[in-house]
Amino acid sequence: MNDSSSLKPSSSALARRVREALRNTPIDDIHTHLYDPAFGELLLWGIDDLLTYHYLVAEVFRYLDIPAATFWSLPKVRQAELVWEHLFKNHSPLSEACRGVLTTLNALGFDLRKRDLPSIRKWFASQDPNKHVDRVLDLAGVRTVCMTNSPFDDLERPVWEKGFRRHERFKAALRIDPLLLDWPNASRKLYQQGYSVSRTLNTRTLTGVRQFLNDWSNRMKAGFLMVSLPPNFEFPAKTECAQLISGAVLPHCQETGQPFALMPGVKRGVNPALQLAGDGVGLSKLDGIANLCAAHPTNKFAVTALARENQHELCVLGRKFRNLHIFGCWWFLNTPSLIHEMTRMRIELMGLSFTPQHSDARVLDQLIYKWRHSRSAIEQVLVEKYSSLAEVGWTLPHSELKRDAATLMGGEFNRFSSMTLKPNTMSP
Ligand code: HDL
Ligand code: ZN
Q1: I want to staple 183 with a disulfide (CB 3.0 to 4.6 A). Which of 172, 221, 240, 259 is the partner?
Q2: CA–CA distance, 219 with 217 (Å, rounded to integer)
Q3: DSSP states of 120-137 as a string?
Q4: Nearest CA to ligand 1 atom 2
């Protein structure tokens, strides 16, 4: 028998190998709010967009003694200066969203000892947006980003209808929150767009909705459909949401092979005065997710839940259903401590059959910090887990570290997305 201690590589050597494997693995970022440069102003980038990110707006309102409406009436540059003053100069920028801005600026080569906001602004203003896009993706180690694309967005829709040459690194996902969560208005919009639908969810209407999903999936080349859901989402249910999922979304996805991504746990507008920063989190009942996976074994579901307290139950569901792919540390979970906790739990319960992170970036330059911070937390967990294998004599060739890193950085989601599920004797 081997004395496994002689096989034990030093953890620092192993840590270096894991770090190298992760850092040299291109990332497919499966959920962002970025836009193909063809969308012009919709693609946010630069210091003032970084500083007015809604995470920082929520944090600066904790110090501001002006009404929210006054803040929103200010020009973006002035809003950014208030954030810089309160969250960076008057208080050390220790929050994840603050620290992220500095990680990004440092990576772009700024000397932060100067804390010179005007000169930072001047540098961004002198950049060519198209060159900056590829510079940021390369610095972040990101190969492709998936956008969040909505036919219900009056600014976005005309760009799709006009048509444009796609940037190969920007993929699309069809976001359908208004369709499922605000059917009264959505049915009117579909009717206005020429679809034969009415408010009544009869066969004719559901066929019209499927036509809508088909048209936009094709126009966008959408890799998957996506919806965020309130904590009280139920399925099956008599709700319009559940009927639209059953009668249109799932048959559509069954036909096209697209996964359906559900993101439960959002309480929209907890504090409406904060606008985008005003949404909150609630504990979700995950029975609806389990019922969907069980009743539709040949549909593919990708799920990320917003509440920390839902994560263990979601992992257990991941063990029960092969048609369920779990992804990301979403929004209020996107902090090093919770990424570490969730990734550890997921690896211990599901091995590598999940996607640990998506950036959810809204500003191009955020890709740099969101991925550096996430990769560092994921790396710590992997070093711990690989070390425990090495301790019992399991060898870890570099090719396998690279293989595993590729799996976690988008490979497993891509495999899941392209697989065809046949009715399985294992499913109920
Ligand atoms: O619904 C979503 O996709 C969320 O990510 C929201 O867009 C949220 O405002 C956000 O940006 N979270 O990071
Ligand atoms: Zn998002």
Answers
A1: 240
A2: 6
A3: HHHHHHTS-HHHHHHHHH
A4: 228
- Burial class of residue 365, CB neighbours in 10 A (0-12, 13-18, 19+): buried
Q: Report helix, strand and coil shares of the chain as percent, to nearest 5.
A: 55, 10, 35
CA of 225 to the centre of ligand 2 (A): 13
Helices (H), 84-232: 96-107, 117-125, 129-140, 157-162, 177-181, 183-192, 203-220
Atom index in ligand 1 nearest the CA of residue 330 equals 13
- In terms of Cα–Cα distance, which of 108, 48, 112, 116 is closest to 83? 48
Tell me how far apart the alpha carbons of residues 14 and 20 are, in angstroms, rounded to a whole number.
Answer: 10
**Phi, psi for 325 (deg, rounded to 5):** -110, 125
The per-residue pLDDT for range 122-169, each reduced to its tens digit, is: 999 999 999 999 999 999 999 999 999 999 999 999 999 999 999 999
Nearest CA to ligand 1 atom 10: 331
Partners of 260 in the β-ladder: 225, 301
For residues 239 and 197, what is the distance between their CA atoms, to the nearest angstrom? 17
